Amino acid sequence: MIRNILSLLHKNGYVKGNVGKNGGYQMILSLAQCNVGELYDLTIPPTISYARFITGKTSLLEEENETHETEIESNIAETLTDLFTLADQDYRAFYHQFTLADLKQDIEHHGYFQRKIDEQ
């Protein structure tokens, strides 16, 4: 998994590096140039993170015994997927407010993110 992420970062110009025994990776961009949201989107695309809820009959026997579905039963999977998708979009937008430089600031001075949000 780490190799896959490093490969993505390399292909998108965030790091340079070499594979192999004496290989390694190094950041090309400054921390201020690396947006947390962009990195999140790059490494965890929305199509992977969006939940797909599956509901309904779990066996043929259930289908034979129940011939009708309720409105809730027939629509809940799409509704839950829509709800999760909207929440994930907001989550991603939140991350786009910050850079890795902000992350470093919060590591050094816990509470930095909250202060930054409060200032906006």
Automatic annotation (TrEMBL):
<dbReference type="Pfam" id="PF02082">
    <property type="entry name" value="Rrf2"/>
</dbReference>
<dbReference type="InterPro" id="IPR036390">
    <property type="entry name" value="WH_DNA-bd_sf"/>
</dbReference>
<dbReference type="InterPro" id="IPR036388">
    <property type="entry name" value="WH-like_DNA-bd_sf"/>
</dbReference>
<dbReference type="InterPro" id="IPR000944">
    <property type="entry name" value="Tscrpt_reg_Rrf2"/>
</dbReference>
<protein>
    <submittedName>
        <fullName>Transcriptional regulator</fullName>
    </submittedName>
</protein>
